[in-house]
Specification:
Blueprint: H1 3-9, E1 13-17, H2 27-34, E2 39-42, H3 50-60, E3 64-69, H4 79-89, E4 94-100, H5 105-119, E5 125-128, H6 132-145, E6 157-158, E7 163-168, E8 174-182, E9 186-191, E10 203-211, E11 214-228, E12 231-239, H7 249-282
Parallel strand pairs: 1-2, 1-3, 3-4, 4-5
Antiparallel strand pairs: 6-8, 7-8, 7-10, 8-9, 9-12, 10-11, 11-12
Helix pairs in contact: 2-7, 3-7
């Protein structure tokens, strides 16, 4: 896998398997991002079995949490048996289940007994409400309880295209180029070692950023530098107009949807390539297709 793929798979991610979109709408994913959680929906379709999709995710996204919607009916798939198999095959993986609110406490107790105690999943049995707005709070609490944020406080979007910067230092030294990554707290770029001369924590005023058509300006301070094979990496931390760390509220509000767009495109494009490759291979063979069996050129 190349460096871009390596960067995309870094960081803890949460996948909702076969979600009920009437209970967990698409807007939930963007809302999770504002709280520092990187979440994705994995839908069932006719092209590749959900079992194979789950195995591919577990094979490539080592630091991930999977929540299975056990109410979603798939022919010849028993959720409890499948999750048990995955729990045995991937003992380090983190699993939870979600389901619509049950009418009796006895039903809920039976589900918890089966999945929490018999199978031994670690991330809980989550009962969702029929009102979508209530489920936002439920999912937020579940993600927090399961440390779905990982080690990073803010989710970082890896920039592949249409993400540029332009800055001028106090010494009238100008520079423009392509961003490497961006979050609501930091951004970075890689240039030739002698392209920019700045002291650590030196402030740069009015940095212009273009993020997939969004144009914002913000002050920033040089947080750190590091030599890489591609050049010198400069990491900047945003500074608001009031001098506080981070973006101004309006810029933050505008940037979050763009961050989600970038991250969603990156992750889903990678998964689509893996799923399509597995679909082609499974059409000529039987059984689950392992990630290792995929040709590297198909990534």
């Amino acid at each position: 896998m190349d460096n871009l793929v390596d960067e995309i798979i870094k960081g803890r991610k949460t996948f909702f398997i076969a979600p009920d979109r009437s209970l967990l709408p698409q807007g939930l994913l963007e809302e999770c991002l504002t709280m520092g959680y990187e979440c994705y929906f994995i839908d069932n379709d006719i092209f590749l079995s959900i079992e194979t999709k789950v195995e591919i995710i577990l094979s490539i996204f080592k630091d991930s949490i999977l929540f299975f919607n056990i109410d979603f009916r798939i022919p010849n798939l028993n959720w409890a048996q499948f999750i048990q198999q995955m729990h045995v095959k991937y003992p380090e993986a983190l699993f939870g289940v979600v389901y619509a609110k049950r009418q009796s406490p006895a039903e809920r107790t039976a589900i918890e007994r089966q999945y929490l105690y018999t199978i031994g999943i670690q991330c809980g049995c989550i009962q969702l409400e029929y009102q979508k707005k209530n489920n936002f709070d439920i999912i937020e609490k579940v993600l927090w309880a399961n440390q779905a944020m990982g080690r990073r406080k803010n989710v970082r979007a890896v920039c592949t295209s249409s993400c540029n910067f332009q800055l001028v230092t106090d010494a009238k030294e100008g520079l423009s180029g392509k961003l490497s990554d961006i979050s609501i707290s930091h951004f970075s770029f890689c240039v030739d070692e002698n392209a920019l001369t700045l002291a650590e924590y030196e402030k740069v005023h009015d940095v212009a950023l273009s993020i997939k058509g969004l144009h914002i300006r913000s002050d920033a301070v040089l947080y750190m530098t590091r030599k890489t094979d591609a050049g010198k990496l400069f990491v900047f931390a945003f500074v608001s107009k009031s001098g506080q760390s981070g973006l101004d509220p309006l810029n933050k509000q505008l940037l979050i949807p763009k961050l989600y767009e970038i991250m969603s495109e990156n992750c889903n494009d990678l998964l689509d390539k893996l799923f399509n490759a597995a679909s082609r291979k499974s059409s000529s063979s039987s059984g689950i297709v392992e990630l290792e069996a995929l040709d590297g050129n198909e990534l």
